[in-house]
Amino acid sequence: MVIELFTSQGCSSCPPADALLADLADRPEVLPLALHVDYWDYIGWKDRFASPAFTHRQKGYAHAAGVGTVYTPQMVVGGVDHVVGYRPSELIDLIEKHRAAPDRVSLTATLANGTVTVEAPAAPDLGAPVMVQLVTFLPEETTEIERGENAGKTLTYTNIVQDWRDIGEWSGAEPLKIDAPLDGGLPAAVILQRTGVGAVLGAARVQ
């Protein structure tokens, strides 16, 4: 299952959530991803991992949920369930809920000669088409925070998303096979998600 953490180096409430995400990194059934947002940069520390694209993604989740504001730290489980990022008991409950309802689609993602090949069997009951997304991330990075709410702290971050892009659309009527370039040597994963930051129907780490 995919767990997204919307976080910021400029947010004093985020370090416990960052540590919680790190604890999930070794669980084989979980793909935890940290997306650093940029809307706290103005308070004194510019988060070097932040991207307006990740802020836009979080706002998309808020819009889909009928919520008018965004906040950090926030975790989104499976594209549908939201929880405050430093509440481990609530997160564990959501993880168990999603474990009881496995991915709708089983897919593979293999890398050879700079190209990732994504494959899945036909899924005629898929309903509406889904987006095939390719995500690259840094496994771990430590930063000394010099200003802002976390000034003076040295913080370690896990699975820091560098790029999240659509590489295709799939209706499920036929088997899926998509090739996409993958450079840079970073770990990567492929995610199937309903259009408009909806439910995640499948995910696989690139092997």
TrEMBL record:
Q: Which InterPro entries match?
A: DUF1223 (IPR010634), Thioredoxin-like_sf (IPR036249)
Q: Which SUPFAM superfamilies match?
A: Thioredoxin-like
**Regions that span the bilayer:** none
Q: Which domain of life is it from?
A: Bacteria
Q: What is this protein called?
A: DUF1223 domain-containing protein
| Classification lineage | Bacteria, Pseudomonadati, Pseudomonadota, Alphaproteobacteria, Rhodobacterales
